[in-house]
Amino acid sequence: MNGVQDNSIGSTNESQFLGNYIVIKHAENEYSLIAHLHQYSIIVNEGQNVKYGDIIGKVGNSGNSTEPHIHFQVMNDKNIEACTSLKIRFINNRELIKGDVVCGLQAE
């Protein structure tokens, strides 16, 4: 999905709750979801291989979002309505607790 308009600050679009999003397959039963991207900013195509460092889109405020940010989750199925979330494994083995703010992770 790439054509959902960004919301004005404080309002949401609950009918398209993910807004503009992509799903990336990492391995069998391991996918990541990146949602709330800026309208028309997604620059990858379905089936395209992506690697660490590739630009895939821009932070936005689409979908059920009141301010610009991205929603990132790792899950066991590409179908968001049938999936179970998986624990995120970072390169440096850093572990996050719900509510932690991540401002940038450096590559090792």
From TrEMBL:
Keywords: Hydrolase, Metalloprotease, Protease. GO terms for biological process: proteolysis. CDD domains: M23_peptidase (cd12797). Its cofactor is Zn(2+). It is an enzyme of class 3 (hydrolase). SUPFAM superfamilies: Duplicated hybrid motif. It catalyses: Hydrolysis of the -Gly-|-Gly- bond in the pentaglycine inter-peptide link joining staphylococcal cell wall peptidoglycans. Gene3D superfamilies: Glucose Permease (Domain IIA). Its EC number is 3.4.24.75. InterPro entries: Cell_wall_metabolism_enzyme, Dup_hybrid_motif, M23ase_b-sheet_dom. Residues 13-78 form the M23ase beta-sheet core domain. Belongs to the peptidase M23B family. PANTHER family: MUREIN HYDROLASE ACTIVATOR ENVC, PEPTIDASE-RELATED. This is lysostaphin. It comes from Staphylococcus aureus. The lineage of its organism: Bacteria, Bacillati, Bacillota, Bacilli, Bacillales. The gene is lytM_3.
